[in-house]
Design brief:
Layout (H helix, E strand, L loop, with lengths): L2 H68 L4 H11 L8 E6 L13 E5 L5 E5 L11 H9 L3 E2 L3 E3 L7 E11 L5 E10 H16 L2 H4 L10 E6 L4 E3 L11 H9 L3 E7 L2 E9 L5 E8 H4 L1 H30 L1
Antiparallel strand pairs: 1-2, 1-7, 2-3, 4-6, 5-6, 6-7, 8-9, 8-12, 10-11, 11-12
C-alpha cells in the first residue's frame, strides 16, 4: 500500500480502537453498578423473606403463649394450653413452658413441659426440666428474666439422647401472673435443618423471579445464601459448602450489623460476598456468587468488541487497498 493509505489505515484503526475501548469502559462501569445493585437487591429480598418466615413463627408462638398465660392456675391447664395450640404452626419443632422453681409446689423446682413432634405425624409431651437440665441457668432463661420481653435466642445444641436432640434456635417470651410476678419462660423451637430448607426455598424463588432473572447477560446466577451469627459463626449454608470468615473487616461488620461487599476464596472458588443484617435478629445474611459467573458479561462483551474492532480494521485495510489499485 502507498504511504497515504497506511496513514489512513493507522488513523482509522486508532479511532476504531478508541471507540471500542471507550465502549467497553462505559459498559464495564454500567455493568459493575448493575451487578452490585442486582445482588444487593437479592440480599435484601432474601433477608426480608427469611425475617418474614421467622415473623410468622413469632405470631403463631405468641398465640400459643397467650393461651398458656390464661391458664396458669394449674399445671394441667398449662399443659392443655400447649397441647391444644401446638398445631398452629407445624414448622415449629416444639413448644415449652419453663416455670419458675416451685411455681406449682407439687411439681417441684424444675417443671418444663415440652410439646414436640414425635417420630410419626403427632405430638408428644416430655418433661425436660431436671437437675441435669437446669433450665434456670440457661442463657435464654436468664435473659428473658432480665429483659422482660420476647426475643430470639442464640443458636444452641440440645442433647439428651432422644429424638429431640439437635441444633435449635428458640423464640422466647416470659409470662407473668396478674400481680406481675414471673410465672414461666415459654419458647417455640425451630431446627436449623428446617431453617436451611426454608432458606434454600427462598433463594431458589429469588433466583427464578422475573424481576431478577431478566437480562442475564450470559450469567448462570450460581449464587447461594449463608447466614451468620453476630460472632461470625456460620449458621445456615448449603450442604456442600463450608464457610469460614477470616477477614477482620467482615467480622467487624457482622458484629455491628453493617452491610458490605467483599471478595474472598470459598472452597477454592474466588467469590464475591454481598452481606447485610437481618432485621430484628442478631444475624447477617450473605449472598455468595462465583466471580467467574459475575465476570461473564465483561468477558463476552470484551471479546465481541475486540472482534468488531478487528473486523473494522480489516474493512478499512481492504478499502485502502482498493483505493491504491483504483
Amino acid at each position: 500500500m502507498k504511504r497515504r493509505s497506511w496513514y489512513i489505515l493507522i488513523s482509522l484503526s486508532i479511532v476504531i480502537l478508541l471507540i471500542t475501548s471507550i465502549s467497553y469502559l462505559t459498559f464495564s462501569a454500567a455493568m459493575r453498578v448493575e451487578t452490585q445493585g442486582r445482588y444487593s437487591g437479592v440480599q435484601n429480598s432474601v433477608s426480608a423473606q427469611l425475617g418474614g418466615t421467622l415473623g410468622r413463627i413469632e405470631m403463631s408462638a405468641n398465640n400459643v403463649f397467650n393461651e398458656v398465660e390464661k391458664r396458669l392456675d394449674s399445671p394441667e391447664a398449662a399443659i392443655h394450653a400447649l397441647e391444644s395450640e401446638a398445631e398452629l404452626n407445624p414448622d415449629v419443632r416444639g413448644y415449652f413452658a419453663a416455670f419458675e422453681p416451685n411455681f406449682f409446689p407439687q411439681k417441684g423446682i424444675w417443671f418444663e413441659p415440652y410439646i414436640h413432634h414425635n417420630d410419626s405425624t403427632g405430638y408428644s409431651l416430655t418433661q425436660v426440666g431436671s437437675a441435669r437440665h437446669d433450665y434456670t441457668k440457661s442463657p435464654w432463661y436468664i435473659r428473658a428474666r432480665n429483659v422482660k420481653m420476647s426475643f430470639w435466642s442464640d443458636p444452641y445444641f440440645y442433647y439428651d439422647g432422644t429424638s429431640i436432640s439437635g441444633h435449635y434456635c428458640t423464640f422466647v417470651k416470659p409470662l407473668y401472673t396478674l400481680d406481675g410476678k414471673l410465672a414461666c419462660v415459654c419458647g417455640a423451637d425451630i431446627t436449623f435443618e428446617w431453617l436451611n430448607s426454608e432458606l434454600d426455598r427462598i433463594v431458589n424463588r429469588c433466583r427464578y423471579a422475573p424481576q431478577f432473572s431478566r437480562f442475564k447477560f450470559m450469567r448462570d446466577f450460581e449464587f447461594y445464601a449463608v447466614a451468620f451469627f453476630k460472632d461470625g459463626t456460620c449458621l445456615l449454608h448449603p450442604a456442600d459448602k463450608s464457610f469460614t470468615i477470616k477477614n477482620k473487616k467482615m467480622l467487624k461488620d457482622i458484629e455491628e450489623g453493617r452491610t458490605g461487599i467483599i471478595d474472598m476464596e470459598i472452597d477454592g472458588v474466588p467469590s464475591r460476598v454481598f452481606y447485610g443484617s437481618i432485621e430484628n435478629l442478631e444475624w447477617t445474611l450473605a449472598i455468595v456468587a462465583p466471580i467467574s459467573d459475575l465476570n461473564k458479561p465483561f468477558i463476552y462483551i470484551g471479546l465481541a468488541l475486540a472482534l468488531l474492532a478487528l473486523i473494522g480494521i480489516i474493512i478499512v485495510f481492504i478499502i485502502c487497498r482498493r483505493i491504491d489499485h483504483a
